[in-house]
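Researcher: Sequence recovery benchmark, item below. Answer with residues only.
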């Protein structure tokens, strides 16, 4: 696969995830999300779009860097972790925003944090910079887990 195709693939895989997550979150933002009781240190709604734009950009760049490695064995396992965390991100969006299943979403985001941590470890064995570019995402997921847990606790019926 040449570099243009690798970049296109990186962009498309992350883009599909962003699109699916946006569908669920935008519906929630227009319906029930504004009425939720929020935990301390919850950001204003306008923060989410720019943060996710930055994180998705870092994902594309990092994944592209990994795909350009000649170490096919490590790239294969990194690819599985990367695609796995994207799937978990879409599942979390569906459970949290689409269904309002905050407890189930908490389980998924915990698994996503672990998966991203393992992905960073694998990325760093292939390309140190590619791995390091994922730390903001990991930190954001930990913060999102705090928000998820707070919303689950504060909005129990």
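Model:
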């Amino acid at each position: 696969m040449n570099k243009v195709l690798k970049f296109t693939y990186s962009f498309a895989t992350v883009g599909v995830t962003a699109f699916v997550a946006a569908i669920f979150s935008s519906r929630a933002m227009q319906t029930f999300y504004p009425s939720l009781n929020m935990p301390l240190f919850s950001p204003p709604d306008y923060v989410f779009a720019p943060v996710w734009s930055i994180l998705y950009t870092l994902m594309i760049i990092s994944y592209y860097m990994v795909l350009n490695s000649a170490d096919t064995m490590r790239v294969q396992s990194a690819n599985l972790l990367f695609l796995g965390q994207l799937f978990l991100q879409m599942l979390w969006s569906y459970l949290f925003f689409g269904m309002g299943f905050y407890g189930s979403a908490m389980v998924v985001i915990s698994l996503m944090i672990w998966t991203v941590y393992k992905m960073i470890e694998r990325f760093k064995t292939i390309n140190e910079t590619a791995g390091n570019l994922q730390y903001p995402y990991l930190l954001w997921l930990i913060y999102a887990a705090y928000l998820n847990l707070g919303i689950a606790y504060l909005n129990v019926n």
